[in-house]
Design goal:
Elements: H1 5-8, E1 16-22, H2 36-49, E2 54-61, E3 65-72, H3 74-78, H4 82-92, H5 107-114, H6 117-126, H7 130-149, E4 161-165, H8 168-179, H9 181-184, H10 198-208, H11 256-270, H12 283-287, H13 292-303, E5 312-313, H14 327-333
Parallel strand pairs: 4-5
Antiparallel strand pairs: 1-3, 1-4, 2-3
Length: 361
């Protein structure tokens, strides 16, 4: 029986989650012949990030599956006004005309929902919910693909996998793993040639802004240049908060230049028959305070997964947990239990416009 998402997703433990979703039966339903589907997913992902209180650090869209590295931010959702919650949700599930075209969101409709505090509280929670985010990403593409192929049935293979990322070593390893998926699969010769990945998006954005000349083959603090990722819809690599900013990033000190060095080193480390790691690559781990052995072990585990995906990567470093090696047991013990005669609450709900909003995972 599938594990409840609430048992594996807890923002109090970690806000970072590596999400994986595969096409049904592993079929190649997003190949070059229908490459517009990958572009649609990328565009839909960008749209949802403007609505939800969730940020995306990395993504990779493959022919038969996708990878996302997401950061939950429920605190941001709490800052939404009632009107903003209503407007965001109405944009997410708009009214449609008889032809299916979305109608403009009216102030009257927004105000009607904003005046209901119970509804606002419920939708506010959903705007920071991982399951609702993935549902809103996957379900519309399934409908689009079925119409294009003139068929019915499932497009995605069951529920998406969500793997908690608990420490910095696992965070960097997961980011590199996602961006290197096309290289590892043999569909791209180099990381920078991989299309529909976060790495390619960052490089294209940097070049379009004229910042390519600021990239340096160096690991010093002089490589920090916030303009390289200014205005990018993805979460920045370098966490700006330690420098007085308010934008969260993947990791403090991980500049785009440093990340490129990490990507290059990791691509050589995990691929058979490639050149060995250059001696001057080692400082990237020292500067970021990352345990190289732990990083290598995690990357190896990712590229050689067991039959069942792990539910978490890394060690929990939250000092508030008295027994950090068994944090997930104490988390499960806090969850409600239902007796045999009782039924857990149903997840079936409806959007304000009456459309079905089930199958969240």
């Amino acid at each position: 029986m599938p594990t409840l998402r609430s048992r594996v997703v807890d923002e109090a433990i970690t806000p970072w989650y590596h999400c994986i979703s595969r096409c049904v039966r592993g079929a190649f339903l997003c190949t070059d012949e229908v490459d517009y589907r990958k572009q649609w997913i990328e565009s839909r992902l960008r749209e949802l990030l403007e609505i939800f209180a969730i940020e995306c650090a990395c993504f990779s869209l493959m022919d038969n599956h996708l990878h996302l590295l997401l950061r939950l931010d429920s605190r941001k959702a709490q800052e939404f006004s009632a009107g903003e919650v209503a407007r965001r949700w109405c944009h997410l599930f708009p009214l449609r005309d008889i032809s299916g075209k979305a109608l403009a969101v009216t102030d009257a409709r927004v105000q009607r929902f904003a005046d209901d505090p119970t509804w606002v509280a419920k939708m506010r929670a959903r705007l920071a919910d991982l399951g609702w985010f993935m549902k809103c990403l996957k379900e519309p593409l399934a409908r689009l693909a079925n119409r294009a192929d003139d068929c019915t049935g499932a497009f995605w293979e069951g529920r998406f996998k969500s793997i908690a990322v608990l420490d910095e070593e696992s965070l960097l390893a997961t980011a590199a793993y996602i961006d290197l998926n096309p290289v590892a699969a043999g569909v791209a010769p180099t990381p920078e040639d991989s299309v529909h990945t976060s790495l390619r998006t960052r490089l294209d954005h940097c070049q379009a802004k004229g910042g390519a000349q600021t990239l340096r083959d160096d690991l010093s603090s002089l490589t920090r240049d916030p303009s390289q990722e200014a205005g990018l819809w993805l979460m920045p690599l370098d966490d700006d908060r330690p420098y007085g900013g308010d934008r969260a990033g993947l990791l403090a000190g991980c500049t785009l230049s440093c990340y490129l060095r990490l990507i290059d080193a990791t691509s050589r480390m995990i691929r058979d028959g490639k050149a060995s790691l250059a001696a001057d690559m080692a400082p990237i781990f020292q500067r970021l305070g990352v345990d190289q052995a732990a990083l290598e072990a995690t990357v190896t585990r990712l590229f050689q997964p067991p039959e069942r995906f792990p539910s978490r990567l890394g060690a929990n470093n939250n000092s508030s947990q008295p027994n950090r090696t068994r944090w997930y047991l104490s988390f499960e013990n806090r969850l409600p239990r239902y007796r045999a005669a009782e039924q857990p609450p149903s997840e079936a709900t409806r959007a304000p416009n009456g459309e079905s909003c089930i199958n969240r995972a």
